[in-house]
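Class, discuss our next protein.
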Amino acid sequence: MEAWLSLLGGLVLLVVGGELLVRGAVKAAERMGISPLVIGLTLVGFGTSMPELVTSVQAGLNGSPGIAFGNIVGSNIANMLLIAGASALICPIVVARSALRRDAAVMLAATVAFALLAALVPMGRILGAGLIALLVGYIWYVIQQEKAAADGGALHDKSLALAEADPGIAPPHAGQGLIVPLLTALAGLALVVAGGSFLVNGAVALARGFGISETVIGLTIVAVGTSMPELVTSVIAALKRQGDVAFGNVVGSNIYNLLGIGGTTALIAPSNVPEEIARFDAPLMVAVSLLLLLFAATGLRIARREGAVLIAGYCAYIWMLWP
């Protein structure tokens, strides 16, 4: 019971803290005159991925690579099968051709690269720094393109999905200073860090108590729990008939997870990716990426029937993993 309470309490703290962190950081950045485009692609993008980031880093520091990397791979699989599938069931997802050409292609390339690296080399600090540098370069490239063309994109859709789901993320009042937004962001960060610690400790205790591997816990319970912001924002986008935003949110989240969270985890807590993840789950993540892009490329939409296939695939995946 104590393990479950720690796990659930950690998830609540992560979700609440992540929202406060994003809200405070966005308003502080706006008060300092930072471009809304830059805010959306950096602060909002990283903020909604903060539960995955903190959980994976803390798990790595605690010597639990199964939870650290299982969270990354499991979150991406959940994003594509569970979240994209649920969104398509609610409202067929319309896919912009530009999103397929640029963002989905980057997601697929990052997925293949991560799977190969996981199987071939340890996730060390140099590799982690390289992954982060790739993400920074990609964000810079997207900012330059969107300034010129204003055509949106996956990273923009990721921030837009959160803004649609949380009206509190809006420009501050003219008379508001920096103190309140900064305190809000710091409080959110403290909650996220505490939540990550509770979640990791609860997950480890749960795995030991039930005789289940930490890797399975990381790929399932932890991964779905830390993906709750993406699930909520994508479902709300689908309910508002903004299926293109739901697709961009999934693609953008996967890019952040692989390059940003994978890179940061390797940089701070280098370790080997567990063999079972490298041998099965990471290649499956590549296959699921190809399936999602195949559905998206056929008619530039993901229909309800295809959404049902994605959800069925996730159910089958959980059935295969869970003892």
About this structure: The longest strand covers residues 93-94.
